[in-house]
Write a structure and sequence with these properties.
148 residues, Nucleoside Triphosphate Pyrophosphohydrolase, 3 helices, alpha+beta, Nudix_hydrolase_domain, NUDIX_hydrolase_dom, NUDIX_hydrolase_CS, 25% helix, EC 3.6.1.17
């Protein structure tokens, strides 16, 4: 049976200059793990018994980044499922997309992470070393661009 994890790809919109495209002001939140290879990832974690996937995504975001569900707006129409092996076992990760209501909200990391960054798409893809995560971030950005 595949290990199941759920999380949120969180973004914020900075006040853009009137001449620029709205999507130029989008930054994505990535957290750096304090274990293993210290990779960068959106907040995510394993589904607890009796919990549905979206509840897991919000709980993990609260635990790992200190963000309450009330501080985020879930974006309708985006959900991504990734499948990859971890230590030889299959893993499924489901991501939803959420926007920060206030782009100045403080991020409070748990012990699972040692750093966080708000990054524009290009930098977020450099930090997220896994190809499927890079592709997902690009897909999210396209999705947001298409909504403008």
């Amino acid at each position: 049976m595949a290990v199941r994890a759920c999380g949120l790809i969180i973004y914020r919109r900075l006040q853009a200059a009137p001449s620029s495209k709205v999507t130029d002001g989008i930054e994505y939140l990535l957290l750096q793990t304090s274990y293993g290879t210290h990779h960068w990832t959106p907040p995510k974690g394993h589904v607890d018994p009796g919990e549905d996937d979206l509840q897991t995504a919000f709980r993990e975001t609260q635990e790992e980044a200190g963000l309450q569900a009330s501080q985020l707006t879930l974006i309708e129409g985006y959900k991504k499922e990734l499948h990859y092996p971890v230590r030889g076992k299959p893993k499924t990760v489901i991501y939803w997309l959420a926007e920060m209501k206030d782009c100045n909200t403080e991020i409070k990391l748990s012990e699972e992470h040692q750093a966080f960054q708000w990054l524009k798409l290009e930098d977020a893809c450099k930090f997220a070393e896994y190809e499927d995560m890079q592709a997902t971030l690009k897909e999210v950005h396209q999705f947001l661009c298409s909504k403008e």
